[in-house]
Amino acid sequence: MSSRRQFIKTSVLAGAGVLVGTSAFSNIFISRKPKVIIIGAGFAGLAAANYLHKKKIDFVILEARNRISGRVFSHTMDNSDGLVVELGAEWVGNSHERVQNLCNDFGLALEDNQFESDLIYTGKHAKAFEWGYTPEWEAKFEAIKANYTKLTHADKLRLDKMDWWRFLVNNGCTGLDLELRELLDSTDFGESIRHVSAFAALAEYAESSDKNEMDCKIKGGNSQLAYKIAAEIGRDKILLQHAVSKVVQTKAGVTVYCNNGKQFTGDKIICTAPTFAVKKINWQPGLPAEQVNALNELQYARINKNPLLFSERFWQRENFDLITDQTPHYFYHATKNQHNQKGVLLSYTIGDKAAVVANQTDAWRAQTVQQTLQPFFGDVQKLLLGQTNYYWGHDEYSQGAYALYGVGQWFRLRPILNRPHMHTHFAGEHLADWQGFMEGAINTGEEAGEQIS
Ligand SMILES: Cc1cc2nc3c(=O)[nH]c(=O)nc-3n(C[C@H](O)[C@H](O)[C@H](O)COP(=O)(O)OP(=O)(O)OC[C@H]3O[C@@H](n4cnc5c(N)ncnc54)[C@H](O)[C@@H]3O)c2cc1C
């Protein structure tokens, strides 16, 4: 598999040791393990900490929220029955080796979370396997994906200069095929594919598992992995409600200031905050202008998750999901494998739809879901027991679900954002090969840990 980016290992050892300055010892470099301050207790920060813990390097994690796990956010919908849904990351992909290995290490079970999709389009309902792309487009797309490994770097740069919608059109995708790709692919990226780099999209589809990494889920909720890592590294190493507001770096080391008045000194920082939050930190000295521009340029996808608890699973299939051209956009059965009469169907909206749905009342959302489903599934509103709603576009720290690399941004912005700033290394899904995934967050956290050790 050809990788989306080449990870550049930067020499970061300056400051990680003490040079003994007498002539007799001038060539002796006495190793002193650095004390590391990790910003953020999402999967990147926890993975970095786990790496340092194994290397016996001292660290502390400063987390702004009053919980760990960041954009992996398992939520109990129904306390009496313990039904758990994901307000953030849902799927662990079959290709996501580090997540799978960590689950294995910590004794966490991965459960099948694959779905077969129904479609509601132009007022008609087609059941799974009764709709799809034309055979011509299917064959063409397979050929495009197969060709991906043959692309030169110059080809990839050219691809990055156009959006995914345009790329599809240029490759003969038209009519219903194009409409379906817009509905499905926009769901993956969290905004219309007219905003997505064609390179980022093709790389994702060409490198992913058959179900596009929508394969499994951690039993009991994906946050279980965060809790296990936290227990392994020591909960006392994670300080919640410690939002970093200022970072001062000198030759001698770093001092990190939090909103609550606490301050910490160390040798190195691993900053795993999403770009919006990175930008809000007062960096002294300031981040280079190029990096600030890149932080300003990168957008994050708007995703709204609206889990709806029903008294019965009227959708009948455990592996039910449904793509629609209506306001609730995409539904999936969020309590698959959780045996109960009740069940949660989650409405997953993206882009402008997400922003609209997020700003309405529960009653409006229930009514809109009813409007979409009632013609095909009957009066579902009478089965509705409750709902919750989380809009990532309003999330205080990320202002979006995950990074959205637009036209011309993948090769230009990502390396700039990934550059260390003095003693600070950056990590997080936005910098990952598996960008937008838990796997990517873990990869970058471990890579940052490796660079420091
Ligand atoms: C709706 C949605 C759906 C998704 N679906 C999937 C999926 O199906 N599969 C998948 O693999 N991935 C999915 N993802 C992506 C996945 O959740 C992320 O890639 C991953 O969790 C990002 O981890 P991270 O550590 O990079 O960032 P985060 O989880 O955001 O962690 C960063 C942490 O830094 C903290 N922080 C920010 N600023 C500061 C500060 N100043 N001081 C201290 N702490 C700070 C934040 O509070 C946060 O806890 C989804 C995400 C969302 C939101």
TrEMBL record:
Keywords: Auxin biosynthesis, Membrane, Oxidoreductase, Transmembrane, Transmembrane helix. It comes from the Bacteria. The chain crosses the membrane at residues 36-52. It is an enzyme of class 1 (oxidoreductase). Pfam families: Amino_oxidase. Its cofactor is FAD. Its EC number is 1.13.12.3. Pathway: Plant hormone metabolism; auxin biosynthesis. The keyword Nucleotide-binding does not apply. PROSITE patterns: TAT. It catalyses: L-tryptophan + O2 = indole-3-acetamide + CO2 + H2O. InterPro entries: Amino_oxidase, FAD/NAD-bd_sf, Flavin_amine_oxidase, Flavin_monoamine_oxidase, TAT_signal. Residues 43-452 form the Amine oxidase domain. Belongs to the tryptophan 2-monooxygenase family. This is Tryptophan 2-monooxygenase. It comes from Terrimonas rubra.
